[in-house]
Write a structure and sequence with these properties.
Blueprint (H helix, E strand, L loop, with lengths): L9 H5 L19 H22 L6 H9 L5 H4 L4 H4 L3 H19 L4 H11 L6 H24 L6 H12 L4 H9 L8 H7 L1
Helix pairs in contact: 2-3, 2-8, 2-10, 3-8, 8-9
Length: 201
Protein backbone atom coordinates (compact mmCIF):
# COMPACT_ATOMS: atom_id res chain seq x y z
CA UNK A 1 0.00 0.00 0.00
CA UNK A 2 1.33 3.46 -0.87
CA UNK A 3 2.09 5.63 2.14
CA UNK A 4 -0.17 8.40 0.82
CA UNK A 5 -3.19 6.08 1.01
CA UNK A 6 -2.68 5.13 4.68
CA UNK A 7 -5.39 6.51 6.95
CA UNK A 8 -3.87 9.20 9.16
CA UNK A 9 -5.66 10.37 12.31
CA UNK A 10 -3.29 13.23 13.22
CA UNK A 11 -5.63 16.04 12.19
CA UNK A 12 -8.65 14.24 13.55
CA UNK A 13 -6.93 14.48 16.92
CA UNK A 14 -5.99 18.14 16.41
CA UNK A 15 -9.57 19.04 15.54
CA UNK A 16 -10.60 17.90 19.00
CA UNK A 17 -8.57 20.69 20.64
CA UNK A 18 -11.75 22.79 20.40
CA UNK A 19 -13.31 20.53 23.04
CA UNK A 20 -10.45 20.84 25.56
CA UNK A 21 -11.42 23.56 28.01
CA UNK A 22 -8.84 25.73 29.78
CA UNK A 23 -8.96 27.11 33.34
CA UNK A 24 -10.81 24.03 34.59
CA UNK A 25 -10.50 24.89 38.28
CA UNK A 26 -12.16 28.28 37.89
CA UNK A 27 -15.66 29.50 37.15
CA UNK A 28 -15.47 31.12 33.72
CA UNK A 29 -17.67 33.93 32.46
CA UNK A 30 -16.43 33.08 28.97
CA UNK A 31 -15.11 29.57 28.36
CA UNK A 32 -11.85 29.25 26.45
CA UNK A 33 -10.70 26.18 24.56
CA UNK A 34 -7.18 25.11 23.63
CA UNK A 35 -7.73 25.65 19.91
CA UNK A 36 -8.59 29.35 20.23
CA UNK A 37 -5.86 29.85 22.84
CA UNK A 38 -3.29 28.31 20.49
CA UNK A 39 -4.23 30.73 17.71
CA UNK A 40 -3.91 33.70 20.05
CA UNK A 41 -0.53 32.55 21.34
CA UNK A 42 0.64 32.07 17.76
CA UNK A 43 -0.22 35.59 16.58
CA UNK A 44 1.21 37.15 19.75
CA UNK A 45 4.42 35.11 19.44
CA UNK A 46 4.73 36.10 15.77
CA UNK A 47 4.38 39.77 16.73
CA UNK A 48 6.88 39.46 19.58
CA UNK A 49 9.40 37.89 17.20
CA UNK A 50 8.98 40.70 14.66
CA UNK A 51 9.33 43.33 17.41
CA UNK A 52 12.53 41.62 18.57
CA UNK A 53 13.93 41.66 15.03
CA UNK A 54 12.90 45.20 14.03
CA UNK A 55 13.48 47.07 17.30
CA UNK A 56 16.01 45.07 19.31
CA UNK A 57 18.46 43.68 16.73
CA UNK A 58 17.03 40.16 16.87
CA UNK A 59 17.40 37.59 14.11
CA UNK A 60 14.76 35.00 14.97
CA UNK A 61 12.54 33.22 12.44
CA UNK A 62 9.13 34.77 13.16
CA UNK A 63 7.29 32.34 10.89
CA UNK A 64 8.87 29.28 12.55
CA UNK A 65 7.96 30.69 15.94
CA UNK A 66 4.36 31.26 14.87
CA UNK A 67 4.10 27.69 13.58
CA UNK A 68 5.57 26.20 16.75
CA UNK A 69 3.23 28.33 18.87
CA UNK A 70 0.23 26.88 17.04
CA UNK A 71 1.29 23.45 18.27
CA UNK A 72 2.57 24.43 21.75
CA UNK A 73 -0.37 22.82 23.61
CA UNK A 74 -1.24 20.11 21.10
CA UNK A 75 -0.45 17.28 23.53
CA UNK A 76 -3.44 18.38 25.62
CA UNK A 77 -5.67 16.59 23.13
CA UNK A 78 -4.31 13.44 24.83
CA UNK A 79 -3.54 14.68 28.35
CA UNK A 80 -6.24 17.29 28.79
CA UNK A 81 -5.42 20.72 30.22
CA UNK A 82 -3.74 20.30 33.59
CA UNK A 83 -4.35 23.54 35.56
CA UNK A 84 -1.21 25.47 36.49
CA UNK A 85 -1.73 25.19 40.29
CA UNK A 86 -1.71 21.40 39.94
CA UNK A 87 1.09 21.24 37.37
CA UNK A 88 3.43 23.20 39.65
CA UNK A 89 2.09 21.97 42.99
CA UNK A 90 5.28 19.99 43.59
CA UNK A 91 8.49 19.03 41.83
CA UNK A 92 7.32 15.40 41.68
CA UNK A 93 4.03 16.29 39.98
CA UNK A 94 5.77 18.64 37.54
CA UNK A 95 8.36 16.02 36.58
CA UNK A 96 5.68 13.35 36.19
CA UNK A 97 3.63 15.63 33.96
CA UNK A 98 6.66 16.39 31.78
CA UNK A 99 7.15 12.65 31.24
CA UNK A 100 3.48 12.25 30.32
CA UNK A 101 3.78 15.21 27.95
CA UNK A 102 6.86 13.71 26.26
CA UNK A 103 5.01 10.43 25.74
CA UNK A 104 2.04 12.29 24.28
CA UNK A 105 4.39 14.12 21.89
CA UNK A 106 5.72 10.80 20.60
CA UNK A 107 2.23 9.36 20.24
CA UNK A 108 1.11 12.32 18.15
CA UNK A 109 4.21 12.15 15.95
CA UNK A 110 3.53 8.46 15.33
CA UNK A 111 0.10 9.37 13.96
CA UNK A 112 1.81 11.10 11.03
CA UNK A 113 3.06 9.44 7.84
CA UNK A 114 6.71 8.55 8.35
CA UNK A 115 8.02 11.04 5.78
CA UNK A 116 6.38 13.96 7.61
CA UNK A 117 7.51 13.15 11.14
CA UNK A 118 10.85 14.92 10.84
CA UNK A 119 9.08 18.11 9.75
CA UNK A 120 6.83 18.06 12.80
CA UNK A 121 9.40 17.11 15.44
CA UNK A 122 10.45 20.69 16.18
CA UNK A 123 6.80 21.78 16.23
CA UNK A 124 5.59 19.14 18.66
CA UNK A 125 8.60 18.07 20.74
CA UNK A 126 9.35 20.92 23.14
CA UNK A 127 12.93 19.86 23.83
CA UNK A 128 13.81 20.23 20.14
CA UNK A 129 12.62 23.84 19.94
CA UNK A 130 15.42 26.47 19.87
CA UNK A 131 15.64 28.13 23.29
CA UNK A 132 15.14 31.62 21.88
CA UNK A 133 11.95 30.45 20.14
CA UNK A 134 10.73 28.74 23.31
CA UNK A 135 11.23 31.92 25.36
CA UNK A 136 9.14 33.98 22.96
CA UNK A 137 6.35 31.39 22.87
CA UNK A 138 6.34 31.17 26.66
CA UNK A 139 6.03 34.96 26.88
CA UNK A 140 3.18 34.92 24.35
CA UNK A 141 1.48 32.21 26.40
CA UNK A 142 1.63 34.44 29.50
CA UNK A 143 0.29 37.45 27.59
CA UNK A 144 -2.59 35.35 26.26
CA UNK A 145 -3.37 34.13 29.77
CA UNK A 146 -3.26 37.70 31.09
CA UNK A 147 -5.66 38.83 28.36
CA UNK A 148 -8.03 36.05 29.46
CA UNK A 149 -7.75 37.15 33.10
CA UNK A 150 -8.51 40.76 32.20
CA UNK A 151 -11.54 39.73 30.14
CA UNK A 152 -12.87 37.70 33.07
CA UNK A 153 -12.32 40.53 35.55
CA UNK A 154 -14.05 42.95 33.19
CA UNK A 155 -17.01 40.55 33.14
CA UNK A 156 -17.18 40.85 36.93
CA UNK A 157 -15.59 37.49 37.70
CA UNK A 158 -13.25 37.74 40.73
CA UNK A 159 -12.05 34.12 40.25
CA UNK A 160 -9.19 35.46 38.12
CA UNK A 161 -7.87 38.18 40.46
CA UNK A 162 -4.92 36.18 41.83
CA UNK A 163 -3.95 34.76 38.44
CA UNK A 164 -4.08 38.25 36.93
CA UNK A 165 -1.84 39.65 39.67
CA UNK A 166 0.69 36.84 39.28
CA UNK A 167 0.83 37.17 35.49
CA UNK A 168 1.09 40.96 35.70
CA UNK A 169 4.11 40.63 38.00
CA UNK A 170 5.77 38.05 35.74
CA UNK A 171 5.26 40.17 32.63
CA UNK A 172 6.49 43.34 34.37
CA UNK A 173 9.62 41.49 35.53
CA UNK A 174 10.35 40.06 32.08
CA UNK A 175 13.81 40.82 30.73
CA UNK A 176 12.62 40.43 27.14
CA UNK A 177 12.37 43.94 25.62
CA UNK A 178 9.86 42.77 23.04
CA UNK A 179 7.47 41.87 25.87
CA UNK A 180 7.65 45.37 27.37
CA UNK A 181 7.12 46.85 23.90
CA UNK A 182 4.04 44.69 23.30
CA UNK A 183 2.55 45.45 26.71
CA UNK A 184 3.03 49.19 26.19
CA UNK A 185 1.98 49.44 22.55
CA UNK A 186 -0.57 46.67 21.98
CA UNK A 187 -2.01 45.53 25.30
CA UNK A 188 -3.84 48.67 26.53
CA UNK A 189 -6.32 48.75 23.64
CA UNK A 190 -7.30 45.09 24.11
CA UNK A 191 -9.84 46.00 26.78
CA UNK A 192 -11.60 48.57 24.60
CA UNK A 193 -15.07 48.07 23.17
CA UNK A 194 -15.68 47.93 19.42
CA UNK A 195 -17.05 51.48 19.51
CA UNK A 196 -14.04 52.61 21.48
CA UNK A 197 -11.67 51.06 18.96
CA UNK A 198 -13.44 52.84 16.09
CA UNK A 199 -12.98 56.19 17.83
CA UNK A 200 -9.21 55.67 17.97
CA UNK A 201 -8.92 55.09 14.21
Amino acid sequence: MKESTITCTFYAYLSRLRWIKRWGLKRNAHEENVMEHSWEVSVIAHTLALIKNRYFDGSVDANAIAAAALYHDVTEVITGDLPTPIKYHSTAINQAYKQIEKQAELELLNLLPERLRGDFEQLIQHDKLPEEHAQIIKAADKISAYLKCQAELKAGNPEFELAAAQLSRQLNESTQPEVAFFMTSFFPSCSMTQDGLKKTN
